[in-house]
Design goal:
Length: about 170
């Protein structure tokens, strides 16, 4: 309830806000101070925003995702070999690749130990599980002609719902 309050007032694009797990911060994508899109955070109650990444290649069709403990942010960005999934400390720093190209739509497991991603090659996609150490665990679908996909974890982390569009 209450009156809506504007948190950003920049002339650039700010989008895809995500609450931190403790509700104290918001992460979002922005083209402020960059020729491309980067990740920023700010206090949920308003105040100065902080630039977390300097890649300029964060994908706009994917959400920024907080780790369950609030220490890291996960996102998809374009790199030298294609779109990959990255993690960066919520306070900023050098991003690390979690899942190599061609991966997108990352989702943390509730315990923060695994992620599900869309992994695409030659125009078709699969949903895969990866450890946060960057090790592929397994594929979640046997179909090979999936055009678009996405995933969501159950609240207890025991299942992953996979949404897929099969063109066959």
């Amino acid at each position: 309830g209450g009156t809506a309050r504007r948190l950003t007032d920049w002339t650039t694009s700010e989008s895809a806000p995500q609450w931190s797990p403790d509700g104290n911060f918001i992460a979002f994508r922005s083209t402020r101070d960059s020729p491309g899109t980067d990740i920023w955070t700010m206090p949920a109650g308003g105040g100065a925003a902080k630039r977390v990444t300097t890649l300029g290649t964060v994908l706009t069709g994917n959400q920024v995702s907080w780790s369950p403990d609030g220490r890291e942010l996960m996102f998809a960005a374009r790199g030298g070999t294609g779109v990959a999934v990255y993690a960066v400390a919520a306070v900023g720093g050098a991003p690390r690749i979690l899942v190599p190209a061609t991966s997108f739509r990352p989702r943390w497991s509730p315990d923060g130990h695994s992620i599900s991603v869309g992994k695409c090659e030659r125009g078709y996609c699969l949903t895969e599980l990866w450890s946060t150490a960057g090790v592929r665990v397994r594929s979640l679908a046997a179909e090979t002609e999936i055009y678009e996909n996405d995933s969501r974890w159950s609240s207890d982390g025991s299942m992953v719902f996979v949404q897929a569009q099969n063109l066959a």
